[in-house]
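Regression check, glutamic acid case 386:
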Amino acid sequence: MINPQVTALNKSATLKITALTKKLIAEGKDVVNFAAGEPDFDTPEFIKDQARQALASGLTKYTPSCGIPALREAIAAKLRTENNIPAQAQNVIVTSGAKYAIYVALLTLVQSGDEVIIPSPYWVSYPEMVQLCGAKPKFLKGLKEDDFKITPASLAKAITAKTKVLILNYPNNPTGLTFSRKELEEIYQVVKDRDIFVISDEIYEVLSYDSLEHTSFASLADAAKKTITINGFSKTFSMTGWRLGYLSAPDEVSEQASKIIDHTTSCACSISQNAAFSAFKDQQWPKKVQAIFQERRDIIWKGLKECPELDPIKPQGTFYLFCDISSTGLNASDFATQILEKHLVSCIPADSFGISGFVRMSFATSNQQISKGIERIKVFLTELGK
Ligand code: PMP
Ligand code: GLU
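Current build output:
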């Protein structure tokens, strides 16, 4: 009776392990949370204040389905000024989380039999969403020696007559690496004359380190005509529970996508949307967040770079550090289970990101917790080596 497309789905490993970690912490266990895909700090007060005001003034009703017009305009203005994307309010759809924006983008573009190219390693939810749309994920393996990035040649080879969409995610979850403008331009050269849309998931854009500049795919030449840019408030404004994200797409796509919103969620939460206005008023907040995470990245990198058993990759962005643990002799699941059970450090085995022998360590936690986690990992590795 149950739809086989649903039975075929996997549960989200990131959500599952993060929930387990939070449960252990709530039970009083001193777990260092290197699993979480969300900032540890609270939503800033200026956003909460705006939410309280929205509640007090009764802004508790449906909003227009694609979002409050002024919020769509504020997002479009941000995309124009900060990302060089030629977006207008009608291109923007506000959604219940960036995750749902990706799903809406896919539902709008693909149908049964279509192929969606997903560079691997990938964020857990992409293949499952593609399958829910009845389309086929086509994995394009990034090689470790290429920093796990797809190359123009490998991309050109993976494209078939059935390819409808390429998903890009940078800075990347789980590798922590990002594309330079030049690399993006090379990818653009491969897709530009083909009937292929790019879904560019840039949710970690603010978290780019060492003064690396973030380039939006839709800002390249004519790319905006065939790009859906994904972003949201979860990471930069620590608003994961508010469920607020957005997409920006060409007119013909946003017009069609709006029908999906009409008939599924009706609109994103009115309080979240009203609160999000204030996010654009504080230009300093994203800079503060970036600086906090730059420091955390430096601490975890300094602590773990000299662990040959982890062979870690220096994160250029996000709050993830990707480690090759194959030399420990443990598979990723056993590594994660043992380090959690014996040393109370949680991390995510990367099998659900499409690669074995790797784990993802999140540094979305305090400097003290990061230092504590590093010590525990070192003890664990020493024990393993005995
Ligand atoms: N894309 C990536 C790469 C992510 O890591 C996440 C984290 N959940 C999302 C999208 C979705 O974010 P949101 O919480 O806004 O749904
Ligand atoms: N994106 C985060 C992660 O990768 C949050 C959990 C999720 O939505 O997958 O851990």
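Comparison notes: The mean pLDDT is 96. The radius of gyration is 21 Å. No diff flagged against the previous build.
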